Amino acid sequence: MGVGSGFADTEAEKDGSYAGGVPRETGVEDGAARNTGRRDEEARWCPPHLFDPGGLPSERLKLVLGVVAGYDAVSRIGLALGEIEDRGFRTSGIAGAAIASGLVLVMSHEQIMNTLRIACSSAAGLRTFTPRSRREHVEYENEPLRLSMPTAAQVLAKFAAELKFEDIPPAVVRRAKDCIADTVAAAIFGSTRSWSRMAVDYARRYGGAGRCSIIGIPDLHVHAPYAALANGVSAHAFELDSVGKANCGTHPGATLVPALLAACEEAGADGRTAITAFVAGCEVAVRIGAASRHSSENLGFHAPGLNGPYAAAVAAGVASGLGAGELANALGIAGSLSCGLLAFTKSQHGAMVKRLHLGRASESGVLAARLAGGGYAGPETVLEGKFGFLDAYCRDGDANLLTEDLNRTWETLHISMKRYACHLYAHTPVQAVRELMSEHGFGGADVAQVVVEGSPVLLSHHDISEPGDIMKAQYSVPFCVALALFRDPEDPRSFDGSALEDSAIRAACRRVELRALGEPPPSARVTRVRMRLHDGRELVRGFSASKGMEDDPFDRETLQRKFMRLTAAMGEDESARLFERLQRIEAAPRFTMATGAA
User: Fold this and answer.
1) CA 256/CA 457 separation, integer angstroms
2) What backbone phi and psi angles, to 5 degrees, belong to 543?
3) What is the CA radius of gyration of the chain?
């Protein structure tokens, strides 16, 4: 028997397959040795005679198999990624836990594989808690770390804790309210998507009878972390949510609104507190994103999944009334909750995990704020320190940008709202195509070729000519341009599943070529479109910004038109009332999305 296992002897123990729950031969000499005899090892770990004649393992054996397979997965992944801790990550057992749980629940092979894919996109953990060297002006001798100057997390936390609604300029308040309204509309529309319903079902099953509402799902209330998760998924469900300043990789609306809504509803906070929490979180998020120089995506990370937990932690913390010290701890905790891989951009299916990244960011922010409020500590060097965010997740980051012009310039003013239901990098070429079509009177069938010139990231991340699902299609610049030739891209329903089966759109997608601009543009949002028609005409249109971006923001009429379109299922009168209520958030005694709220 394995020590402390609590099980009777099994055939596996008798034949020496394992001892004490640990493989007898786990060591390997090198990578080649790991791959040698893998089938034999798999047979040893899962011998057929462990199963009942009916093919279903007994309850005890399911648990044994789950633990053994999970241990094996952790060992293999740990060996394959032996150098990951040198980059500041703490190797995680999340993949092994996913496999173990799947076996215990008797999931199918396909279900376990999907569980593993999701788990790998949710992995987190930084080694920032390890002590810095004395050369970095830190004394460490059985005492807490003592720094000669405040860290970036401490500076940002102090700013957020001391921010008052009265201190926020009116233009910033206006932009914050517009973004909150835009996010609520995106979440209402997004809540109808199947992947959002899955997140809602999860929240309903495990979230209990809490105080927090699920946007778009009347009369359902769950506990704060589950509400933040479900609302974050819905807000980002159809590529309709806002983004922050260029080259920062932030999604302020889908990250902040779910977290602060959950915190406000749990605490009974008012509308002014909600606006203040939003602005505080946005100012922190954009600065962290700017300091990364958007380099994390070159390493395969999804930027808002990394910077989002920090922003959400600040928003939830401010909404809950945390002080500067608690907010600093919340930021430290959030650093070990970052997640999100761009693997979906290079795979045929599975892009729905992209929606999960924003939900997880909001959920993580609530978790970090709640733990910090209860006294849980996080490393104060989490952002700029050794093994911190910039060191582990970024390349050529600039720590000075973490706090630059804090409380003097307002990054909230740079929020961009989306005009089309697709990735923002597709917006300028789509707008160019639509304007050229309107001005020159041609249709999609008249187009022989389209060339979109842009930044290197446009080619490395968004050159997808054969997307396998609609979520991947919304991330594909060629597909979005092709769709704009045949459908109205301002109507999000144009991006339904039938677009993938549309032979005209598919054929046009293959005629869209992405090229690098001669000089790298200042932002991936800058593009130039060259079109050649079958009649020989060649047309060119370039844009540095599309409608809704910071240089050409929505006016109230445009914002309301988008809001009404996304919430049409509510009915025109109810939709209009909700829009007006969200435009007067500062007067609300409680910030809530509960049905019947004034």
Assistant:
1) 26
2) -140, 140
3) 25
The band of 60, judged by pLDDT with boundaries at 50, 70 and 90, is low
DSSP symbols for 497-565: THHHH-HHHHHHHTTEEEEE-SS--SSTT-EEEEEEETTS-EEEEEES--TTSTTS---HHHHHHHHHH
3-state secondary structure of 322: coil
**Do the Cβ atoms of 250 and 304 come closer than 8 Å?**
yes
Q: Residue 108 — φ and ψ, nearest 5°?
A: -75, 165
Residue in 384, 338, 395 with CA at minimum distance from that of residue 138: 384
At residue 21, the 3 state secondary structure works out as: coil
DSSP secondary structure letters along 79-94: HHTTTGGGGTBPP--H
Q: What digits encode the pLDDT tens for the residues 279-316? A: 999 999 999 999 999 999 989 999 999 999 999 999 99
pTM assigned to the model = 0.78
pLDDT value at position 68?
Answer: 56
Residue spans of beta strands (DSSP E) within 88-164: none
Of all residues in the chain, what percent are helix, strand and coil, respectively (each to 5)?
Answer: 55, 10, 40
Query: For residue 158, what are the CA distances in angstroms to 155, 272, 362?
Result: 5, 19, 21
Contact criterion met (CB below 8 Å) for 462 and 475: yes
Q: Copy the structure tokens of residue 237.
A: 């469900």
